[in-house]
Structure formats: structure tokens, C-alpha cells
Amino acid sequence: MSAFDVILRQKRLREAETEGGSGGESGIIALVQNDAARHSPFMQDSQTPPAPEMSPDMSPDIPEESPRSAAPIRLRLRLHFGDLLMLGPGKADLLEGIRDTGSIAAAGRGMSMSYKRAWSLVEDMNTAFRAPLVHSSRGGAHGGGASLTEMGEVVLAHYRRLEEITLQAGQDDIAAIEALLAP
Q: What is the pTM of this model?
């Protein structure tokens, strides 16, 4: 367990105390030891965490609030299915844009993407899955349009859920990395 982990957990404990909880130094130690035992593959149940090895540039005097903590942290997840398909935030955003606007062109414009590029990505996705993700109809007198198929809705929902799960599961590590950023 490193010093910045201890500081982050102290902050969480203080926040819990202000909301009516209790704690104190023994509560912080227990919190740190329990977290370390849960997350470290090298610790046995009865061991206490080893003392952190600190270099001068990793001082435990990390400010509680950094200017960066106000900005939301983004996680960009990209799934590679061999040579068949790469599904990432761009294609997921394109699918959402098509769902919300009813148009491949409008979804592409909303992402500063040419119609040709948007259409190419849709074709790639439609070809890669068992069933098309996007249904489109040609324009003309009555206008064209596009919509997500049931398969498209399912793929998009799974991708967004996977993003949420990954972000939640990695919160402690993300906070630890953020704590090491320069002020």
C-alpha cells in the first residue's frame, strides 16, 4: 500500500465522517489494511501491508484537491476482435448519433466526420456482426434515414455497460494515477 493510497483513503474516511460516520486513526488503518489485503496478490489474510518505498519525488504530501480533480476522467475502451472488427468509442458514439438523429450524415456531422467516413464505419460494423447494426433507407422525395436495428441497440448497450463496469472496477487505480499527476 503506497502513501498516496493512504491519503486517498484518509480523504474518503473524512468525507464519511462528515456525513455522520465515525472513524479515527484506527479506522483509517483498518481501512488501508483491509483494502491492501483484498487487492494484493502477495499478502496473506493476517499480514499487514509493507511500508511503502518512497523516492523524494513521491512525497506523501499530495494535496487533497488538485486542479485536475475538477475535470472528469475519461476512459476510452477499445475492443479488438482480431482482424474482424475494432469497436471503440468512435463507433459507439456514431451508433448513438444515428439512434438520436435518425441519419448517418447528421451523426457524422455531429462528430466532425464526413458522410463517406461515417458510412464506411457503418458498413464495417454491419458486415462484422451476424446481423446489421444500422438499417438505412435512401433519400429522395420522402427523405431517407437510418436507425439502429435491435442488434445495434444490443451491441451499443453492451459496449456502454462494459465502459461503466471498467471505470467502476478501476476507480482506485485511476485515483492513484491521478494523485501522481503534477499540480
A: 0.61
